[in-house]
Amino acid sequence: MSEETTSTIGASTDSAPPPPPRDRKLADAWKELKKAPITAQFGLLVILGYVIAAVFAPLIAPFGESEIVGDQFLEATDEFFLGTDNLGRDMFTRLIYGARNTVGIAFVTTCLAFLIGGIAGILAAIFGGWTDQVLSRIVDILMAIPQLIFALLLLTIFGTSITNLIIVIAVLDATRVFRLARAVSLNVVVLDFVEAARLRGEGLIWLATREVLPNIMSPLVAEFGLRFCFVFLTIAALSFLGLGIQPPTADWGSMVRDNAELITYGDPVPLYPAAAIALLTVAVNFVVDWFLHKSSGLKDEH
Amino acid sequence: MAKIFNMILQRLGLGILVLFVVSLIIFLGVEMLPGDIAQEILGQSATPENVAALRRELGLDLPPHSRYFQWLADILQGDFGTSLANGREISELIGVRFANTLFLALVSAIISVPLALIFGVLAALYRNSFYDRSVNVVTLTAISAPEFFVAYVLILFFSVNINWFPSLANVGIDTPFWDRLYRVILPAVTLTGVVLAYMMRMVRASIINLLASPYIEMANLKGMDRARVIVHHALPNAWAPIANIIALSLAYLIVGVVVVEVVFVYPGLGQLMVDSVSKRDIPVVQACSMIFAATYILLNLTADIISIATNPRLLHPK
């Protein structure tokens, strides 16, 4: 539905050709992809790989998620080709399941942060006045405390469970989403078509979802990528500190922590889960960078 | 000048207000804790009389607001209470560790700030060149890597494979300065790697922004040479963003130390906080959060004040 709204708005301002049928759009997207810089293509490929690993984890992984298959810290062999971890679980299996758990939890958290921050931000922009003042001041205060420290404090108070982790990080991150959503919505709510909709007597939900949201989508999408990286790194850091995702769930941050002692023997195994984290954030960042460049470049042409 | 002075006073007032509210949040957060701290300290087997006695001793029988002001007044006098885990004075625990954390952050800042300025300005001047593009890719990668990844890679290379630096940054009170510096090199380089990328990107963006302004174009068009344009026209306006970037990065460093301290077992405030969180030693967590938050707020405030005090529009009012 929102696509229709955008295209009609687009058509009214710069008289673009009528929206192409679906397969034309796909072809366009494909062409756009082939034109993308190599970093962005690499990023998209990596993200695709992670999604496949997360979705089909039980099919790809040779063993069960927390199944003990051998001795502790076994060297890499044909059977366990990344070796085993501190409890004798297969490292490769844990890495694959980690894609599901770590990435999944970060994704859910980011979605929740966008839901909270996005709604609050758009409402603050539409209502203005007191609502805006109160919401903005609350966000100012929340942002005055460094995020990781605040998360540590809140997790001490509420206890470390996955639900608490998701809620705490989502609320803290929603403050950043709020700032952006509010700022970009403020530019939209003063435009004529919003005024027209208000005069037409449209309700709040219509204003927020049909008038404002479609026009702030592109900065929000880019921000979603960046926020996801941030949330992902925060959760990984917390898990690494032993305060995030708890065992026996396979999770990259805690896998680094559990196997860290191997490093002192010159064994790079603990680096694999850490590299898995780094690779995904790099990939997302590359894609977002391209997206930002593209959307800002388009603005220059107008 | 009076205007600048007023603005700075205003910011200071705002900063104190924010600190006050933050202290309130930290206090109230712990208030909301389900269960009774006295009960938790004494365990399930404690008699009700013992619990009541401890409650009186900790002042838990007083109403919340008077306890809050008592707590705040104590903190202002440097008294953070006692640790639940080992009964020691928290201020004693914190003093040395906070100094250690500041030392680590300072060393990282001394390495990263000049590098960030040089590379960032170069990337802005040679925009879209091969150099600029590779800087973009490298910094994006550096930002994306979790601190512990960078830390373990450094440990693997520099302390396990070629054995140049120790993998543990265990410093004591009486560790001499040079030895201390030698031991914090790896943690400092880890922090530098992460914060440098941030700073370079921000420096690059703000310089590009600056070079796009009309008065720079004017200076270029009237044929002024490049060095003069940069030193006389761009730089005076660049102090504010650059000071801002440095202060923000320092704030980031102070917080970023948490993970790095844990990796290198460096006896700093971050490590203490993480330990206390897992032990649920609430007074220590409160104290650490308060100190981290206060440092963070102060650095942000400094950035604000520097950008006001160096703003040419405010310095030379019409």
Task: Give the number of DSSP strands of chain A.
Answer: 0
The global form of chain B is globular
- Relative strand content of chain A: under 5%
The number of helices of chain B is 14
Mean pLDDT of chain A: 81
Poorly predicted spans of chain A = 1-15, 298-302
Strand content of chain B: under 5%
Q: What is the C-alpha radius of gyration of chain A, as a whole number of Å?
A: 23 Å
Helix content of chain A: over 70%
Helices and strands of chain B: which structural class?
mainly alpha
Biggest beta-sheet profile of chain A: none
Sequence of secondary-structure elements of chain A = HHHHHHHHHHHH
Describe the structure.
- The complex is a heterodimer of chains A (302) and B (318).
- With 302 residues, chain A is an all-alpha fold.
- Chain A is 75% helix and 0% strand.
- Chain A is globular.
- Chain B is mainly alpha-helical.
- Classes of the chains: A mainly alpha (302), B mainly alpha (318).
- Chains A and B meet through helix 6, helix 7, helix 10 and helix 12 of A and helix 1, helix 6, helix 7, helix 11 and helix 12 of B.
Summary of the model, kept short:
The complex is a heterodimer of chains A (302) and B (318). Chain A has helices at 2-14, 22-35, 38-55, 57-60, 91-127, 129-144, 147-158, 162-189, 192-200, 204-240, 252-259, 271-301.
